[in-house]
UniProtKB/TrEMBL annotation:
UniProt signal peptide: 1-27
InterPro entries documented for this protein: SASA, SGNH_hydro_sf, SIAE
Pfam families: SASA
Transmembrane residue ranges: none
Keyword field: Hydrolase, Signal
Protein name: SIAE protein
Domain Sialate O-acetylesterase per the UniProt entry, residue ranges: 131-248
Gene3D superfamilies for the chain: SGNH hydrolase
GO MF assignments: sialate O-acetylesterase activity
Entry keyword annotation includes Cell inner membrane: no
Length: 554
């Protein structure tokens, strides 16, 4: 319980971004006032961003008061100064930017406010410096370790990762930007079987443990790769559309005018409640649209983190927009959301978060929804892969081949492969490692009309990387009565089975088309293949080729 105090000094450490009251004060410091208590949002065990970036520390206090911040033991004797000023909400706020700190710890961080010669202090312990990643999106990001494949063993393994720290924001919406979080689901915690699996969140009918499976497996694998402390901050809400997570300027740029209520009216009825994260609902092929106004989650669940210095973001979202039949504008929304998030975090952190920080996302997995193939395409803004000219320093995990066996559930349990594929791409895009991080990508297509075949050339490095074909299906061709056209009234899509392949080329049959082959596409279905059995993979990396489409020049 939070106790009432005469003093207004409050202390926040990004990325906690919540009010923490003074604790363990002495009567000497507080002129006879002897009783103080921490809020339930206690922020020991957190991770702050390491060098070369500089972490930002901020909080609340009495306007005009002096605040000093010290970090022990590494910077013993170093003192950072700030003056409490009137903040965006009218409360007194202060902020300091620490010097660049090497990875490691534990450290103690102390803040002292001095007013009229009297001091008040707060001490945070077991603070590490490392890489901070924000994990956001809808239900597949909120999906917890408790419901992932091999959950019991994965939960037990968490005890081996005390330098990975976890934080989960609660689900709150707002029609105006918030400077601070209104609620927290999981305060900062050391990774452990308890902190990644429970206790269940109360008040919303949820029956699931705290922590995001995709975020956890990504962060755990990242720690194994770079061996520095990792801070994982989850801010996700099931069934939510991208426009709820986007700043107002994105809505304006993409000329999106549909409201949250109108979106709900477009969803087929009946709609079940995906917030009940019990096993039955996870397995159900449903997507629930929340009645969130445009920018409502940006305002309440992202904007409060803008002071935070961080390494990057991973994102898993898009199912709701497919359900709302909003694939046409998703590319505009997604590319501009990434751009504005980057600008806002860079500005909010005083330039400490990189202006083009790495941004990773999961391409949609499977569904029975016919809009999924096009939504996957627009996630790359029509390029088929990332990074691309529209999406620099963006990376992607393909998940189309990870369905639950015999199911088209939008919530596959295999989040381990999602995390490891994201991490492999992050090693290249975010950390600059010379690793192969993508599956095979097509570079050219050639039709042989007399032989009734089509060759698809891939970007394999000859002698090093080779194609692996796991089944004959996956390719389709557009058969049209008109050259260079693939319109519904003159064309039809027909299968094109794989009949041969080399280390870098797949040959498919066009014998089912007696007219003009004008376009082609690959794995263009809501649920195109069984578990890890799509058609084309890289033999050396085991990474799948992403869904793709293109025109065939006559």
């Amino acid at each position: 319980m939070i106790m009432e105090h005469k003093s207004r000094l409050k202390f926040c450490l990004i990325p906690l971004v919540v009010v923490v009251l003074i604790g363990e004060a002495t009567t000497d410091n507080f002129n006879g006032q002897s009783t103080f208590a921490w809020a339930s949002y206690y922020s020991d065990h957190m991770v702050l961003q390491r060098e070369p970036n500089r972490a930002v520390v901020w909080g609340y206090g009495d306007v005009g008061a002096n605040v000093t911040v010290s970090v022990y033991p590494t910077e013993k004797g170093k003192v950072y100064h700030s003056i409490v000023q009137i903040g965006p909400t009218g409360k007194g706020v202060w902020k300091v930017t620490l010097d660049a700190m090497p990875a490691g710890g534990p450290h103690t961080v102390e803040a002292v406010q001095t007013t009229a010669g009297k001091g008040q202090s707060l001490v945070l312990k077991d603070v590490l410096f490392g890489d901070v990643w924000l994990c956001s999106g809808q239900s597949n990001m909120a999906f917890t370790v408790k419901y992932a494949s091999n959950d019991s063993a994965e939960i037990a393994r968490a005890a081996d990762y005390p330098h990975v720290r976890l934080f989960t924001a609660d689900m709150v919406a707002s029609d105006s930007p918030l400077y601070d979080l209104r609620a927290i689901m999981q305060p900062w915690a050391v990774a452990s079987p308890e902190s990644i699996s429970g206790p269940p969140h109360s008040g919303l009918g949820m029956h699931w443990g705290y922590f995001s499976a995709v975020c956890w497996f990504f962060g755990r694998d990242l720690y194994d790769s770079i061996a520095v402390p990792i801070g994982l901050v989850v801010s996700a809400w099931g069934g939510t559309a991208i426009e709820a997570w986007s700043p107002p300027e994105v809505i304006k740029t993409c000329n999106f005018t549909t409201s949250g209520t109108e979106r709900m009216d477009n969803v087929p009825k009946p709609v079940s409640n995906s917030l009940l994260f019990g096993e039955a609902s996870w397995e159900a092929d449903i997507i629930v649209g929340e009645r969130q106004n445009n920018s409502a989650l940006w305002n309440a669940m992202i904007h409060p983190f803008l002071n935070m210095t961080m390494k990057g973001v991973i994102w898993y979202q898009g199912e709701a927009n497919a359900a709302f039949n909003e694939t046409d504008f998703y590319g505009c929304m997604f590319t501009n959301m990434i751009r504005t998030w980057r600008s806002a975090f860079h500005l909010g952190s005083g330039g400490q978060t990189e202006p083009v920080f790495p941004f990773g996302f999961v391409q949609l997995s499977v569904s029975s929804n016919e809009n999924f193939p096009e939504l996957r395409w627009t996630q790359t803004n029509g390029h088929g892969s990332v990074p691309n000219p529209d999406m620099p320093r963006v990376f992607m995990a393909v998940a189309v081949d990870l369905p639950i066996t015999g199911s088209t559930s939008v919530h596959p349990r295999d989040k381990q492969d999602v995390g490891s594929r994201l991490l492999l791409a992050a090693r290249h895009v975010a950390y600059g490692e010379p690793v192969v991080f993508q599956g095979p990508l097509p570079t050219a297509v050639k039709v042989n009309s007399s032989a009734k075949t089509m060759d698809v050339l891939y970007n394999m490095t000859m002698g090093t990387l080779r194609l692996e074909v796991r089944n004959q299906d996956g390719f389709e061709i557009c058969c049209s009565s008109k050259e260079n056209s693939c319109k519904p009234h003159t064309s039809v899509w027909v299968p094109a089975k794989i009949i041969a392949h080399t280390e870098n080329t797949v040959t498919v049959s066009t014998s089912m088309c007696a007219k003009n082959v004008t376009s082609w596409r690959y794995e263009w279905a809501p649920a195109p293949c069984p578990f890890k059995q799509c058609a084309v993979y890289c033999k050396e990396t085991q990474l799948p080729a992403p869904p793709f489409k293109g025109k065939v020049k006559s």
